[in-house]
Design brief:
Length: 128
């Protein structure tokens, strides 16, 4: 059984690797539609539409092309590479609308940036 450390992974935004990435999430969900008929004694369900959300957290870098592409209301193609970017590594790609962008800083810390998105289309599961 394979396992991977977070430090193996990368995320690309708009075709460029996000520099200074500290964490990321990608969530997939599907609506469940009740298809039970009145004469049934057991509930019946059908799969409905799927949606995907995600977030990236990073140390802010104003010179990073990927980070500058992530702005509120922008549609960005995100490519998640949880194992890295070598041949046969898993990849997940999705186009998303950036719905949240946040910056922060503390006296004893780095300037951070985080963004979240909601999908605009299907998630593509593939390999490098």
């Amino acid at each position: 059984m394979a396992s991977h450390t977070g430090s193996e992974g990368l995320v690309q935004a708009g075709g460029n690797t996000i520099a200074e990435l500290t964490s990321w999430t990608l969530s997939a969900s599907a609506e469940v539609i009740d298809a039970t008929i009145l004469s049934s004694t057991d509930k019946v369900t059908k799969a409905g539409t799927k949606s995907y959300t995600g977030s990236v957290e990073m140390f802010w870098d104003e010179t990073d092309t990927a980070q500058t592409a992530i702005v509120e209301a922008a549609e960005v193609v995100f490519l998640f590479l949880p194992e890295g970017n070598t041949s046969s590594d898993v990849s997940w790609s999705v186009s998303g609308i950036v719905d949240s962008l946040e910056f922060g800083a503390a006296v004893d810390g780095m300037v951070t940036a985080s963004a979240s998105f909601a999908s605009n289309g299907a998630l593509t599961r593939s390999t490098v």
